[in-house]
Amino acid sequence: MCDMQGDCSEMPPEFKCLFENAEKPLFSGCAKYTKLSGVLKLYNLKAKNGWSDKSFMGLLELIKDMLPNDNELPNSTYEAKKLFCPLGMKIERIHACPNDCILYWKEYKDLHVCPKCGSSRYKRKNVGDEPKNKKGPPAKVLWYLPVIPRFKRMFANPRDAKNLQWHAIGRKDDGKLRHPADSPQWRNINRRWPEFGTENRSLRLGLCTDGMNPHGNMSSRHSTWPILLVVYNLPPWLCMKRKHIMLSLLISWPKQPGNDIDVYLEPLIEDLKMLWNEGVSVYDAYTRESFTLRAMIFCTINDFPAYGNLSGYTNKGAKACPICEDETANLWLNNSKQNVFMSHRAFLPIDHPYRKKKKNFNGKSETGVARLPLSSLAVYDRVKNVNVAFGKTCKTTQKTLWKKRSIFWDLPYWKHSC
Fold this sequence. Notes:
With 418 residues, the protein is an alpha+beta fold.
């Protein structure tokens, strides 16, 4: 194997060790399993069945005791993971301002103090510690799992590479809505960008995010925000499976990012712009050829509070409806101190009998017609001049329904996607 990959002496030590373990038998006389293949088989069982690290270590100890004394099985889960860590995907730890002002990335990567709020990049043991002279653990970290290598790995598997073309070669096109590929938006994208649409392997992604409590304690205020991607090229019985849901960002901090989530989306958006503008060369193991991969965000999936964080719309208070906006019909309840929205009948057909009923509703008949959703270009006209400084210490005085110009507008196709 070393002859195929080049001289082993020129390889990084971790890869050299990997190739050695791929040739070393699991125990003397074993022709079926090598040290690497045996541990990989066992670890696949752990991942598939959700075993804990402790139970897996117990299994390793038991099997190691059953095999001959010269067996090569690792003694612990940590050693097993270390054995095939060169096969793992890259993870970037990007330091962030604790007040969500910036990422210490690109032009800010060498700074020790936030240029906007003056907070230290590192945790201080004592109040008087100077961050320029004394480093330590970062005050806040963003975990970024680069998406481009993960897309390449999907196409490196022939079965997955074939499934990624299912929307074009396996879908039953009979006019019924069974898959996002049957939607008008999918067809509009194909018409507007034919070069993107005619390549069956161009990826259309759904971005999903929400706050979660990783400790399982509902009374805790800790809020971690994962950013997940789903690939809609896959058939419907696969695209929402755990195996194909891709974690791209992990924002971990006791407080949710809120309106400042755009700061943390920057690395992902930069890769997505590259995937749209230039594309990347990828090898397709199913067709056995290289092609230029391009990808786009097709939609976002989130609940209503997260929708406000991502879009920048003020979805609280009297004008909380993003469809009706300033035409939202609201009613203030003095006793409960809440806004309620009673004009649901405006969304019914104009001849619906409920429109004329007064006693069952608010004592009035409904003659209004619901406003149609704004086009993406109309929304862009409203937000293009909204400039907001991110960070918990920054306050805005803008009196508008839109809190910010979302970072998604930086994607070249976003204002034309619907």
